[in-house]
Amino acid sequence: MTATEVRPRTSENMAPVDMMKALVYHGPGKKALEERPRPKILKPTDAIVKVTKTTICGSDLHILKGHLPMCESGRILGHEGVGVVESVGSGVSGFKAGDAVIISCITSCGKCSKCKKGIYSHCSDGGWILGYLIDGTQAEYVRIPHADTSLHAIPPGSDEDTLVMVSDILPTGYECGVLNGRIEPGHTVAIVGAGPVGLAALLAAQFYSPAEIFVIDIDENRLATALRLGASSVVNNTDGKAVDAVMKMTGGRGVDTAIEVVGSPATFAVCEGIVAAGGTLANVGVHGEKVDLHLERLWAHNISITTRLVDTVTIPLLLNRLRKNPSSDPSPPVAPKIS
Ligand SMILES: [Zn+2]
Ligand SMILES: [Zn+2]
């Protein structure tokens, strides 16, 4: 090749330095770890982040089950992670190469009418797009649009294993479960589903000093973790009798807040069965199929049902909360098992 010869860059002759490993979705039930071109800055407000930690999410599983058909074959999955800024576009002023960052699972422009209301999840040029409508974080590098409002600086000395949960898991449990669930001091709370988001809701619920928190699941390991993280009582619903158990533990009243963190008709039905008169049913789960709403029983029950896609507006607050625990363990002292 002479000095003047121009050879267009193609995927065949691309140097290895331009390639990266990524987990790619190929239609329902199909995924593969592949070599893909590294992302490039496309708009002045973009940043490229080298991903150092990422994780999987229930919504990744919904994509893989084919529940979210807007996710096209060829998409790099993932919307959670921490990393180091590799490069920024000319319009990014809050971050520079080398900065350690948390990637918000929600992309927000910070300027549209929805962003001004704090509903980042419905941003007119963002929302949940990472690993869904654009390539995501389960890769060595990711392009983050609207970097100034979609990245958060990592406080020096932080534990990345903890902070990766601030991308989505902790704000989802807090915003969709605890804030929407209107938990107040002295309330009784039930969390149906003790996966990472259910456990995040369990931790965040304790900000508000509820009297009791019941955690319901079918996995003994998860229930044991829930007890360690502050549940007052746990119920294994393998026998399908969780509603009876919770009604018995509450003297027939039910709970002030029932948080659904699975996204299935059966677990939503448990919440409908245990929410007290005047209570709140806060849905967190991603639902991939039709769910029955039993208004024939609930119409006179003075309940509220809330839904929400996480907005991640509480990430700064959660970072402050974690910063006050140098061990990066936000869990309170172990509560005794009372049943
Ligand atoms: Zn997620
Ligand atoms: Zn916006």
Descriptive overview:
With 339 residues, the protein is of the alpha/beta class. 24% of the residues lie in helices and 22% in strands. It is built from eleven helices and 13 strands. The protein has helices spanning 58-64, 113-116, 147-150, 160-163, 169-179, 196-205, 220-228, 242-249, 265-274, 295-298, 315-323, and strands spanning 19-25, 31-37, 47-54, 81-88, 100-103, 141-144, 151-153, 188-192, 212-217, 233-236, 255-260, 275-283, 304-306. Strands 10-9-8-11-12-13 form a six-stranded parallel sheet, sandwiched between helices. Strands 6-3-4-5-7 form a five-stranded antiparallel sheet. Strands 1-2 form a two-stranded antiparallel sheet. Helix 9 (265-274) links the parallel strand 11 (255-260) and strand 12 (275-283). Helix 5 (169-179) crosses helix 6 and helix 8 packs parallel to helix 9. The longest helix has 11 residues, at 169-179. The radius of gyration is 22 Å and the shape is globular. It starts with 18 loop residues before the first strand and ends in a 16-residue tail after the last helix. It binds zinc ion (2 copies).
